[in-house]
Amino acid sequence: MYWEKQLETIPREELSLLQAERLQKTMANAQKTNFYRRLFSRHKIDPEKIKSPEDLTVIPPTTKADLREGFPFDFLAVPLEEVVRLHSSSGTTGTPTVIYYTAEDLDRWTNQVARSLYAAGVRKNDVFQNMMSYGLFTGGLGMHYGAERIGALTIPIGAGNSKRQIWFLKFFQSTTIHIIPSYALFLTQLIKAEGLDPRRDFNIRTILLGSEPHSEETRRRVEEIYGAKAYNSYGLSEVNGPGVAFECAFQEGMHLWEDYYILEIVNPHTLSPVPPGEVGEIVLTTIYRDATPLLRYRTGDLASLVEGPCPCGRVHRRISRIQGRTDDMLIFRGVNIFPMQIEKVLMSTPGVDTNYRVILEREDYQDKMIVEVEIKPELFLGDLQKLARLRERIQSELRSEILVTPEVVLLEPGSIPASEGKAQRVIDRRQL
Ligand code: AMP
Ligand code: ZN
């Protein structure tokens, strides 16, 4: 039932002691980095006085911008010769961020991923097809080693090359896949085009959905299409990668491993803690990692705390599904909109297929929203009135969810460019 019973079911008081002990080591480590040494001296913080999670609030949070500015070595706490790997987040939009790992860091991370996979029911007899990109991105190698540690047959197929993915799914009858949700939806079109049925021809039992925000409706669709259980898998490269928080069999929120991180959920404007159940920004302090300690790292991800104990017996607190990011909120004619609200409406509408995108334009100083939606191919063969009704239905449901009326365009499957990586759902042309 548990990968590490003692640590997963540890009484909360003991967990607090463990956190305090690990935090103190982390503070000593942070003092060795250029970034935190400067920060402590600027804010007159004595790292030895930070002894338990409550003391952390005197430390200003660390941001992605800090990580970028500190590139390449300002967050490194150990001699470079102790480092055995680095991961880096894409530098397409500026300086990349880089995270270093000692051999022990990698070992702990592997264990953290194994614990997560085990909670979602992955076992030694599974065939694990890892459909995430291998390389600087953590979703490939990170999951890979965790699955191997459990003893699953781990297929490092990587992202993309859909035909090969399908062939492997069929030939090796993979029982577990790790996949980006938008790609899991998109892939179904290609599976059908090959004349295959994902429920009949494959043997998938467990799907790990990670690396991009997705709604409960999308999860249900993926489960329905593949005839499998889909588990939410949360992580970010800055604080290791996959395995930060994971769903257990009860699928009500993701256990965030509190022997690895100190969790805060804060109001992104005031930075004060939000009451349990309310949505705020996830802030994490790494307490079980040597090479790159991060104190109060602002993830930009919005979620709430799930209250109460989980029937699975794990004591680590649960966070809700990620509701969006602090930086993906759209302001459209003065209304705040999260792309996830649009996804929720579309994915719960019968007739809607697997891909969509939102385009924002500005015409004569007026903002315009166009929602392009792919719909099931058979609908184009039916009567036109039905199509018009579907379009109106989507439009009115969107209006009641996001309070603005978009133009809705229905398209045949395959019309909208699909991505093998994280999907780009919103195209904002208003600045151009
Ligand atoms: P990366 O550092 O490239 O792995 O990206 C990490 C980011 O991906 C996180 O900060 C989240 O915004 C997003 N992300 C990862 N996993 C999930 C998930 N299960 N649900 C929603 N967003 C996720
Ligand atoms: Zn649980």
In terms of topology, how is this protein built?
Layout: H1 5-8, H2 12-30, H3 34-42, H4 64-69, E1 83-89, E2 97-102, H5 103-119, E3 127-130, H6 138-150, E4 153-155, H7 162-171, E5 176-179, H8 181-193, H9 198-201, E6 206-210, H10 216-226, E7 229-236, E8 241-247, E9 254-256, E10 261-266, E11 280-286, E12 297-303, E13 305-306, E14 318-319, E15 324-325, E16 330-332, E17 335-337, H11 339-347, E18 352-363, E19 366-375, H12 384-402, E20 407-411, E21 426-428
Parallel strand pairs: 3-4, 3-5, 5-6, 6-7, 18-21, 19-20
Antiparallel strand pairs: 1-2, 7-8, 8-9, 9-14, 10-11, 11-12, 12-15, 13-14, 16-17, 18-19
Helix pairs in contact: 5-6, 8-10, 10-11, 11-12
Q: For the report, how would you describe the main beta sheet? A: 9 strands, mixed
Q: Can you give the helix content as a percent range?
A: 25-40%
**What is the level-2 CATH architecture name of the largest domain?**
3-Layer(aba) Sandwich
The N- and C-terminal alpha carbons lie at a distance of: 54 Å
What's the CATH topology name of the largest domain?
Answer: Rossmann fold
Number of strands: 21
Query: Uncertain segments of ≥5 residues (pLDDT<50)?
Result: none
Task: Tell me the overall shape.
Answer: globular
Average pLDDT, to the nearest integer? 95
Strand percent estimate: 25-35%
Based on CA atoms alone, the radius of gyration comes out at 22 Å
CATH level 4 superfamily of the largest domain: ANL, N-terminal domain
Instruction: Name the structural class.
Output: alpha/beta
How many domains is the backbone divided into? 2
